[in-house]
Amino acid sequence: MNSPTPPSALTAPVPPFRLWTPEERQASLDEALKHWREGEDVWVYAYGSLIWRPDFDFQERRLATLRGHHRALCLWSRVNRGTPECPGLVFGLDRGGSCRGVVYRLAGKSVPEFFPALWNREMSTGAYLPRWINCTTDQGSVRALVFIMNRDNPAYIRTLPEPELLAIVRRASGSCGPCTEYVVQTASALREAGIHDARLDRIARQLEEQTDPLPDN
Questions:
Q1: Distance, CA of 52 to CA of 23 (rounded, Å)
Q2: CB atoms within 10 A of CB 59
Q3: 3-class DSSP string for the chain
Q4: How far apart are the first and last CA of the chain?
Q5: Largest CB tally within 10 Å, which of 7, 128, 143, 155?
Q6: What is the tens place of the pLDDT at every residue in 12-64?
Q7: Which of 48, 49, 47, 44 is nearest to 61 (CA)?
Q8: Is 9 inside any structural domain?
Q9: Which percentage of the chain shows pLDDT scores above 90?
């Protein structure tokens, strides 16, 4: 007796989502900064688009390794790189393994100015969990703000077969542009920073080889 074919993410209904209210984002920000002392510099960990578009001034930038989580296309995007009808995928830090990325040091005086904008960008749907985690750099360990994937969020999606992942990325586009552009640009930024991510490089090469978006069906 043949086992039933598992449902495809291409045809399965995408769970509903909603944008967080300004009050929810502010409450999350207040919680993350409850132990921050005014004027104290902070580190922010970047693993995806924050590497090539941080959108804040920083005092220092270092390569860093985060242990316990890995970079993955595990988050449905229905605004920036997709739509509710045709969602794309964006990166999250999923459980397990390790991740090579970048840490930025922000001057303490800049925190009140830049952190609300950072929360608007990263916490628009509450899909991430802001955590302060030790990251390893060549100059020593730093405690950085890390946005890890909230697996309880409806927008979380577990590892997909690569053909499905590629098809989803190729067909999706949102307010910030095509999903393919986002994935390829992230892969390029990692290479320029001296970060090797073999799986992402392989995905980016396949996306560049076939740039035409696929039909919805």
A1: 29
A2: 11
A3: CCCCCCCCCCCCCCCCCCCCCHHHHHHHHHHHCCCCCCEEEEEEEECCHHHHCCCCCCCEEEEEEEEEEEEEEEEEECCCCCCCCCCEEEEEEEEEEEEEEEEEEEEECCHHHHHHHHHHHHCCCCCEEEEEEEEEECCEEEEEEEEEECCCCCCECCCCCHHHHHHHHHHCEECCEEHHHHHHHHHHHHHHCCCCCHHHHHHHHHHHHCCCCCCCC
A4: 29
A5: 155
A6: 666 677 899 999 999 999 999 999 999 999 999 999 999 999 999 999 999 99
A7: 44
A8: no
A9: 87
What's the CA gap between 108 and 88, in Å, rounded? Answer: 35
Structural domain of residue 43, as residue ranges? 22-209
CATH of the domain at 202: 3.10.490.10
* Global pTM value: 0.90
Q: Which of 38, 60, 122, 192 is catalytic?
A: 122
pLDDT value of residue 211: 55
Is 60 catalytic? The answer is no
In a domain, 17, yes or no: no
Task: Tell me, yes or no, whether 31 lies in a domain.
Answer: yes
> Each residue of 91-107: pLDDT tens digit?
999 999 999 999 999 99
Angle at 157 between CA 151 and CA 161, to 5 degrees: 140
Please give the tally of structural domains in the chain: 1
Overall average pLDDT of the 133-141 stretch:
98
Confirm whether 61 is domain-assigned: yes
